[in-house]
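Suppose you are handed only these lines of text.
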Amino acid sequence: MGVFDSGVGGLTVLHECLVTLPHEDFVYLGDHARLPYGPRPLEEVRGFAREIGSFLEEQDVKLIVVACNTATSAAMPQLQSELTVPVIGVIAPEARAAVQATRNRRVGLLATQGTVDGGRYRELVHAHDAGVELVSVACPRLVPLIESDDPYTGETEEAVREYAAPLRDAGVDTVILGCTHYPLIRPVFQRVFGRDVTLVFSAEETAREVSDTLARKRVENDTSRTGAYRFLTTGDPDAFREMGRRFLQLPIGGVEHVSLAELGAAA
Ligand code: DGL
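From them, the structure of the protein bound to D-glutamic acid can be written out as follows.
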């Protein structure tokens, strides 16, 4: 399976996939050279996602997980129509889970600028329940803080409080953490919103969808084997290993560097 994100955020999704599917093999690519994706035009992110999708397909993966909400917003229909392997994104599972969870039908969305502008959450939430009110807030400060040397600072908490304020004022009872980086600081969100607000994030739901897809297409590996996983980054492999270890909470062996030229050649 191929899994990708702009950085380490997608490791929240990979973690669930490794736990749910310990007999499958994974290759994870973090596009650190071009992080963050959030403030970039969707068109540009679509180009990155197409390069990475083609590159991963060349690695002989049997399925691709777009473990990045911004890339899912920007490129989902195109990736599915251009690649030959199935492509699973992170937005549809979250939209469904949020609609199921809300009791007062007021849902908040915290995400990158690109994801908010893309409007896919609104479409998908309304496809499940047109009566749900969705309040969206773009959070441009969060991804750089989470990818910094120490994400657990007062500055991070202050940023979360600022972004949470309009959602609290709107009285939402469910909040979608619509960026795969955000669950890495989940306790900060939960403390700011309180226990009565349900936080929805994609990792578990997405891993379940990957598992169902493999089973229905009858392409699962033998469950008695132990799968392998490896890492690629367009940035600094040592920095990736250090941060990745903390967030994946599983051993990280070698991390290889892949150049933007190699990705470009695959597209
Ligand atoms: N994890 C990406 C997402 O889910 C982060 C985006 C970014 O690089 O800004 O949107």
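What can we learn from it? Strands lie at 2-5, 26-30, 64-66, 87-88, 106-111, 133-138, 174-177, 198-200, 229-233, 255-257. Residues 5-7, 9, 35-38, 68-70, 112, 115, 143, 179-181 surround D-glutamic acid (CB under 6 Å).
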